[in-house]
Amino acid sequence: GAEVTVWLPLPPGTRAREVGVAIRGGGGGGSSGGGDGDTWLEVTLGGESLLKGALGGAVARDELEWTLEDAPRAGGAGEPSRTLVVALLKAAPPHAAELPIWASLLRSHPEIDVAPLRRAAAEARAGELN
């Protein structure tokens, strides 16, 4: 399946135990986070929500992975800044031949024009058939 990767900058010195990453809903989970079968992502730091909302599509909830990475500071002085990297695996809707192309990470975020991506995918499939 296709992976969606999210990078979130975090303060220097952030520790893994301060970070929370959770997926809720999507038909298989409880009612917390959202309704109507939406899959919700929430990222917290020290209990404060950094990112929360309905995802642009369904994900494989058991395939969620996240890591903290160091990024060197300019000039090499001081503690490195931290980046949270969240990897989500898209899940195909029932009876779908392919994975959907998301117009945004969260449904509440501005959308991009995905028409060129859909055309490129259709052309690639047509090339495979020839």
Helix amount, in percent? Answer: 10-25%
- The ordered string of helix (H) and strand (E) elements is EEEEEEH
Catalogue the unreliable spans.
Answer: 27-35
Mean pLDDT: 83
Strand order of the largest sheet: 1-6-5
Q: From the alpha-carbon coordinates, what is the Rg to the nearest angstrom?
A: 17 Å
What shape does the CA trace take? globular
Proportion of residues in extended strands: 25-35%
Structural class of the helices, strands and pairings? mainly beta
**Count of runs of 4 or more consecutive helical residues:** 1
Distance between the termini: 24 Å
Task: Give a count of the beta strands, DSSP E runs of length 2 or more.
Answer: 6
Sheet with most strands: 3 strands, antiparallel
Q: Explain this structure to me?
A:
The chain is mostly beta strands. Helices cover 12% and strands 35% of the residues. It has one helix and six strands. The chain has one helix at 115-129; strands spanning 3-10, 19-25, 39-45, 48-54, 65-71, 81-89. A three-stranded antiparallel β-sheet has the order 1-6-5, with no helix packed on it. A three-stranded antiparallel β-sheet has the order 2-3-4, with no helix packed on it.
